[in-house]
Amino acid sequence: MELQQMRYAVALAEERSFTRAAERCFVVQSALSHQIKALERELGVQLVARTSRRVELTAAGEAFVAAAREALQAADRAVVDAAAADGRVRGTLTIGVIPTVTAVDIPLVLANFYAAHPAVQVRLRSGGSEQFVSDIRAGHLDAAFLGLAESTPPHGVCVRELSRESLVAALPASHRLAHRKRLKLADLAAEAFVDFPGGSAGRAQGDLAFRAAGLHRDVAFEAMTTDLIIGLIRRGLAVGMLSAHVVPPDPDLVTVPLVDGPRRVEYLAWNEFNPSPAARALVGEVAEAQA
């Protein structure tokens, strides 16, 4: 049994397609299929149930892939640790990045990181804070930049707090409340809102604040990106609550401080159990950027 066969099996389990698994592993489909069959013969069990349209792991396949992931992680860590012992940092660094990071200049941090550690391959993933925390705990991410409500800090991971701020009301310049110097949540309760999708950390910040104030709000629009949220506000379709740092200077937009608005905390999070040398180097780079 070879490590490459394990990699093929893991790719097939995650892609559920011989074609996509082969593309991911940079081999032709016939070669990957041959190696999977050879692995099944060696183990004496069927790992994959196949039809012309469907690929699923058998019970034996599920058990094998779970152990194969651990074996591959251990093999990768052996290479990385050997290099680290020689004073070099190498390997892969997978980082989750939410779309609303404002506390650090991520391209600048990565430029400095790459200059110091050119042998590290950096992979960036987009998504939400809660999924990133789960992925770090499961070993699928090395680190992530998070944004969470002040009342819901992350658990089960190491964190460095990057910033803490109150969200502001973002309004069309023509809105009846745009001239106010400050607002309360009650002033906005009757407005149509645009916000991040329900269940996300970005959405929870506003939901928790309105619930704490004993108020209900109507989220008429849900969007995944701040650009789309701001575009809907600019068009007068809704109001929103955002970090002041993500709202661009625009004559069609106004930001107004909220007296009782939600507070948001940004973190850098990483695995608290035996983080890789690359992850430790990233934490150091972020700390230096904030110094």
UniProtKB/TrEMBL annotation:
Residues 1-58 form the HTH lysR-type domain. GO terms for molecular function: DNA binding; DNA-binding transcription factor activity. One of its GO terms (cellular component) is protein-DNA complex. It comes from the Bacteria. Keywords: DNA-binding, Transcription, Transcription regulation. Belongs to the LysR transcriptional regulatory family. PANTHER family: SMALL NEUTRAL PROTEASE REGULATORY PROTEIN (PTHR30346:SF30), TRANSCRIPTIONAL DUAL REGULATOR HCAR-RELATED (PTHR30346). This is LysR-family transcriptional regulator. It comes from Brachybacterium nesterenkovii.
